[in-house]
């Protein structure tokens, strides 16, 4: 009798638990809606491991705009809960982008990390992953339906994304470019109103840039015609024109070290000529955009060999200054042909291993966290985060998405996107960033700016202009380099060898440009590099990783 009563009590208890669990699951879906009709969006979570409430601590960067409470962030949270089939509560910590690397490095070093965080640098991802700090995502690959699409689309994925032990520690930064457009965000810039006033030709070559700078210096002796907007960016623009680089790069055949090439030396000689004739700002090596903007709007700078294209809109928006800047393709060095664009973007889908979202190995519900992050790589979630909501931020016309004309024609178009929480604004980024960027959304989210080509400046989308006027020959081989990944020991070997060499090279570059080192010392410079470390061994290592 006693035994029968115990069995009955157990059965009643099981029934009660089942009733409560089913009721909780039902309530968690009540009132949740999704903008997508895809049945996957409403798929139930794994009931065996789904908690009644998924509580997460998340550390990510912010870029000036807070997505909290925005239309898209709210829709994101609604769709995530509908997809997960449970309530999701996230404790957000958003760190300003400029402080992010330093502050998160402290977290990693102390092993005090949240459930999810963005980690910068693949060396950090591999290092701390192998120490057991992060979840190995390859153990959950069967449930990563969306992320796996990006993994499989990434060239040489086994080496580029996985460790030697076949571990995958991050949801890496993804991109989707469903077009044939391969643009760059960077270009040369010229003070068009001053060029036109003085009948000076807008340069197409380095020698024309030199001639224009000489004319401008004679007309405006208190100026330094050529300036810099971000450290080393203008210098890289000169090197791109010479088809070389300031470090190790892929030249289309193999990995080489740019600072030992004759093309690099010629770039320094050109910059030395500009410096010796006071045509280039003495602060060329230290200026950032905060120092550059006042010079660009006060008649102190008239030429940028290379800058982020969006800055010209800022220059021109200064109504008090009343200046007119135009973009143009990077000035060519005819010896080498068409100048390479800086950071030309690829077609299709893929991943970049420079940053990624990691999951703490101590998180309470790993399967659920993997499921949540994987959903951010779905087409419907990318569309929501990058474009917003159909009818409120974008429309579909002739089968193509485009931002609403009324929104696009507003004087503060990008700011309006940011206020709605559309990630293409690049300042307000909802979700757990980095989420994959749909590049067409980014390309079309910017206001048109002046772009100079074929003897005239006209309002154009600078992404499209850089694609249309550059052509395939302007794409640097390094931007399509074979994707390789080094082990921790190999990464340490590269760092130990290259850090002192790269430091010496940068210091020497400044000295060559300023004339503190003569070019008759070039052979001594090359010998010093050889003595500092086995550079060739590092190049051989990099090249050994390339699939034949």
Automatic annotation (TrEMBL):
Region (Disordered): 29-49
Coiled-coil regions, chain positions: none
PROSITE patterns (UniProt xref): PROKAR_LIPOPROTEIN
Keyword terms of this UniProt record: Cell membrane, Lipoprotein, Membrane, Palmitate, Signal
Gene3D superfamilies per record: Periplasmic binding protein-like II
KW RNA-binding (keyword) present: no
SUPFAM superfamilies per record: Periplasmic binding protein-like II (SSF53850)
Pfam families xrefs: SBP_bac_1 (PF01547)
Keyword match Protease: no
Signal peptide location: 1-23
Protein name per the record: Extracellular solute-binding protein
